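Handover notes (outgoing to incoming on-call)

Open items:
1. Ligand-gated channel: sequence verified, structure written out, both below. Nothing else pending on this one.
2. Nothing else urgent.
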Amino acid sequence: MTRPLLALSTAAALAAATGGAAAQQAATPLEEITVQGQGAGTGQTDGAPGVATNDGYVAKTTRSATKTDMPVNETPATINTVTQQQLQDRRPQTLEDALAYTPGARVGAYGFNPRFDSFFIRGVDVTYTGVFRDGLRQYSSPSGMFRLEPYGVESISILKGGASAIYGASSSVGIIDVISKRPTDYKFGEVEVQGGSFDRKQLSFDLGGPVNEQGTVTYRLTGLARDADTDMPGVPDNRVFIAPAVTFKPSDDTKITVLGEYMDSKTGGSMFQKNSSVDLTDKYGNVIKDANGDPVTGSGGAEKGIEYDPDYNGFTQKQWRAGYEFEHDFSDAVSLHQNFRWSGISTNERFGDADKTYRGQVKETFSSVAADTYLKTKLQTGPVGHTVLTGVDFGHLKYDSRIAYGGTTGNPDLPNPTKQHQTLWGVYAQDEIRLDAWRLLLSGRHDWLDSKYYVPSSGKPFNPDETPNPYYVPSSTSKQNKGAWTGRAGLSYVTPFGLTPYVSYGTSFNANSGTVINDGSVAKPTKGEQAEAGVKYAVPGYNASIDASVFWLKQTDGIIYAVDSHGVNQQKQLDFRSRGFEIEAVGSLDNGVSFQASYSYTDTKILKLSDVTEGNQVNSIPKHAFAIWGNYDFQSAPLRGLGVGAGVRYTGSSFGDDLNRPIIKNSPRAFVDAKVSYEFENIDPKLKGLRLQVNANNLLDKVEQVCSGSYCYFNEGRKVIASLRYRW
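Ligand-gated channel structure tokens:
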């Protein structure tokens, strides 16, 4: 890649960086020089153009926090970022893998389950409600959740704290904003082949650059095809993925970027291990008995071995999205922004038991529209600077779901579908205030929810001339019309030596899609609040930062599946609180060393669920966890071009159910990952752009049982992936 730079004199550059008076003077121009380097998505991580800037492992700015370009180090909130360089070094295969080194993230709670990206942040399940794509909520339905292809991702921003004030319906702990790869203003390309464990075969490509000489039209085309198995019989890992993007710049003041994606993937409909039965006990250790006085049993320790039919086991999913990001500057102070996306999913899941006594099938389709329009205004009131956002956004979701069980051959007869239509409107305002070293963030919002949930009749309708059918349930429609106010406030102080202390408070509101509680009622919206205090330190003279924070959050009416005091698995709404401490250090240094290290302490407490769980810890959430990853690229001969990396992920002990039974308590565990790479241009300059990389996930092949929600699973064993990439 070749880009011209116009050098500034040292004095003028320093003045511009520090905001001094000399910044207003003309810089002394030097001769034009040419810099050879690699930009976003091609090595050096500049971040998604106009959305984020990163330098190696260190995030500099991200729009995910405020929808503006407020520097990460100045923002009064915790922001963890998985940068492009981290993605390239660790090569995660799922969103769970990508978040594995993020403080406060609980991944792997359901063992090996490639159907969905399921994870917790600070004890909050954000699987359905916390994932955003390019600043817009990624809607989902009960069995329809977007599967992430990391190769199509530029970076991932994890914004912690109630963010509903500017994002609307979202998790009480914040949002995970996945930033898509997008067009660049320089030409590049890469093609890569992969092979590895479980007969993995993959071909991928990434191309981009200007379409015309003026550079007013640029493009990006990213795609891959994979054929692979897993260590579970009847559970493939196949997919075809394509993501086109085009940016139009008709003038210096106007830009529109069109983003698209299509993915067709197939894995297993079930991959459950065998579970033994144990007597259920209450929190006092007493064995729970049924009405006949017999002990109530539930899932306990698991033994290695499948509990499904690999010959009738498939989960195919087709997903697509298309949208745009529009920006227009009316002046240097006022600009209009609009983001829009239409997306949809079609799933077909088949599963049966190992004894081939029954079969089940789930077919589901859903589509959604998300749109966000806001005006950004910069103004000055005396010594106080403001960046004001005023906006309105809209979201609509509709889905059909059909579930059937029965029979030992063929597909079960699917009933009429359960349906839901959900519409959300929101209006919001935010003021980003700057006074000397102070940064004050204030935002408020109101949302309106309109939801209809339709359940078809089941069984044979009642006929007075026949014997009544005891299994007949008439059709029903449940409606919700709700409104909610949410807000966020944060204050930070930016010192000249890189230290930024901050405090923040935010509330959240989320409408639960596709959820009916066991008593037949539609779930109430989930609400939450979080308070936080922390400090950020941008280490002077180094491309490194250290962030630490303490937090307290409370969530009401969260959705969970829980075993009640009689051993019955019920869908309930949970009130709980979480509090803790997190610290993270990241850096990419000039000597070739890059690192990421984190520790988190998360203490959860159930406030309302059932009479025997109040005061217990939320299941599968460890109090202690840490992760460390380091990478070193050799800088001098004879090893120049060689890169090595390794990491350890530690998860402390946790309970396997909300009853906190010691019999299925999860023991502490640690997993090791590793990476080695080599740039062949150090052998021969003609081989510039050719790179070999080998990644090993769970290098020591440690397979552990993990129990969540009273059921037990196993994690995936060692996976080794080798890739050969050519980049130009």
